Amino acid sequence: MMETQANETLKGILVGCGFMGGMHAQIYKILDGVELVGAVDGRVEEAKEKLDSLGCPTRVFATLTEALESVECDFVDVCLPTSLHEQYSVEALNAGKSLFCERPLALSVESADRILAAADANNAFAQVGQCLRFWPEYQRLMEYHSSGDGGKLLSLNLTRRCARPSYGIDNWLNDASQSGGAALDLHIHDTDFVLAMLGEPNSVSSRVTRDFSGPVHVFSLFDYDSLIVSSEGGWNYPVGWGFQMAFQAVYERSVLDFDSSNGKGLMICEGREEPRSLEVEAPDAGESQSGEGNVSDLGGYFNELKYFTDCLKKGAAPEIATLADARDSLALALKEIELGESSG
Fold this sequence. Notes:
- It is built from eleven helices and 14 strands.
- By secondary structure, it is α/β, with parallel strands linked by helices.
- The protein folds into two domains: 10-130 and 285-320, Rossmann fold (3-Layer(aba) Sandwich), CATH 3.40.50; 133-283 and 329-342, Dihydrodipicolinate Reductase, domain 2.
- Helix 1 crosses helix 10 (295-314), helix 5 runs antiparallel to helix 11 and helix 9 crosses helix 11 (323-342).
């Protein structure tokens, strides 16, 4: 793949204009040297009105095939129900386009493997929306862990909880045949982060709560010799409960603690000292287009798309949140579900 010239604009097609598609459209509006030249959504008029209202006007097509025939683009960004990821990802890759696909990559390992095969066959660049790898507080934890400043990691707990999602078009998130349930759509973020930080565990144990939307709450333990990692995630909370993502990493000489719901930010406690804030690096828009958008509010969503498009501009394959990474995270999350339900 050729490197994009400095004066050239990277052009993309957005597939799916729902909740996450709208988020991505606003980020592309902010990113310097990136232009959304088309969008794909079966609800053409509704999608066009939404993009216009977000200040992201672009042509909207009913199918990706039509869009690819009508406009020149460098990449395709798939923000559709998970059950449709393989179809649209493979079409984009076979058309010779780079791919950004929302998480999880697919509903089965076999489906994920077909996407990987299409990318390999077309020598295409791709990245998956495992945004925790780009979330400032989680990035800071990774940096701290790699530094060894806290000594040996003694325990790690990760939590991701939220009210039952009601924002999916036709309520697709609460249909396990389309989303995989909370285990694959929500909890997989923490599963992916554990793999990124610590690698494959020696063993896994899990319990799963299931309801009409599929595996709705997951409780897992990952064994790393003398280290046990606990990870919990679910969306069977009342509508008014809101959203929470949190972690607590206990080291020999310190504790790092983050809870998105308490407003304290990332905290560190060392020895006899009182807990204090630990600085994190804010998302950097660089020379953003017309200075629009509050980048800090977009967190990892902004960081991941900036990283992806920066890689494409340089003609370099993304090395974070790759298709292979996403395939491994999916396989482990599916194992958690299997183990959790067989032991229930």
